[in-house]
């Protein structure tokens, strides 16, 4: 199966995706830049599978104190190590079920209240309803577009409760000047959207949004992102 950084499955890895992935190796940008230059033989800013494996081998060399150079490629080294919220990164692209969700419980409650105040239909919010919330954050439109892309995990043009929490989480990150990732890290994939790994008949931990009764209707609508931006309009 293709590495999780190869988002379009075209057998190529873009510089931006690879950079996010390679950063998890814990090496400095200087070393990673050198690794990229050696691996990207034609300087196109794209690695094919072969070049990507070269990059991984060079990461392993650097992590084991060897020179980052093509001559090190033939030396025996253990496989490269990547940290992803303290669990070994799975190259298979499935979010491991035991990675804790990056959205904290108390934040989730806050995001759920916003979600309910937007009058979801069948537990889903359409893009039209989410858009004003995103725009309200005053973030650049291209960033908001990426937030939407990343949070609409099942690509149905709607956000359920968990997907909405991912969107809010990313917006808050961006407001804290954290870069919005190019592809969703395993830790951000909601448990309900993770592919169970070899557990027959595994139940998702969270009942899907259709079965959750809209029980929070009694909550007053919450000022969106009120903590950050006063709603002066």
From TrEMBL:
Lineage of source species: Eukaryota, Metazoa, Chordata, Craniata, Vertebrata
SUPFAM superfamilies: EF-hand
Protein name as annotated: EPS15 factor
PROSITE patterns given in the database record: EF_HAND_1, EF_HAND_2, EH
Keyword Cytoplasm attached: no
InterPro entries to which the protein is assigned, alphabetical: EF-hand-dom_pair, EF_Hand_1_Ca_BS, EF_hand_dom, EH_dom
Region entry Disordered, spans: 200-220
Cross-referenced SMART domains: EFh, EH
């Amino acid at each position: 199966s293709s590495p999780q950084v190869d988002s379009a499955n075209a057998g190529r890895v873009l510089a931006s995706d690879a950079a996010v992935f390679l950063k998890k190796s814990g090496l400095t940008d200087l070393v990673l830049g050198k690794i990229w230059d050696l691996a990207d033989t034609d300087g196109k800013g794209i690695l094919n599978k072969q070049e990507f494996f070269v990059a991984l081998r060079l990461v392993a060399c650097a992590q084991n104190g060897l020179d980052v150079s093509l001559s090190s490629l033939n030396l025996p080294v253990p496989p490269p190590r990547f940290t992803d919220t303290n669990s070994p990164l799975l190259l298979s692209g499935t979010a491991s079920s035991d990675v804790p969700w990056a959205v904290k419980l108390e934040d989730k409650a806050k995001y759920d209240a916003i979600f309910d105040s937007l009058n979801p239909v069948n537990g889903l919010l359409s893009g039209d309803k989410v858009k004003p919330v995103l725009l309200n954050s005053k973030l650049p439109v291209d960033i908001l577009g990426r937030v939407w892309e990343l949070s609409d995990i099942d690509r149905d043009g709607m956000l359920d409760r968990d997907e909405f929490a991912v969107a809010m989480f990313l917006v808050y990150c961006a407001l804290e000047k954290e870069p919005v990732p190019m592809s969703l890290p395993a830790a951000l994939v909601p448990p309900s959207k993770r592919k169970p790994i070899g557990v027959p008949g595994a139940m998702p931990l969270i009942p899907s949004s259709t079965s959750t009764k809209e029980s929070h209707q009694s909550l007053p609508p919450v000022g969106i992102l009120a903590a950050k931006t006063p709603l002066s309009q």
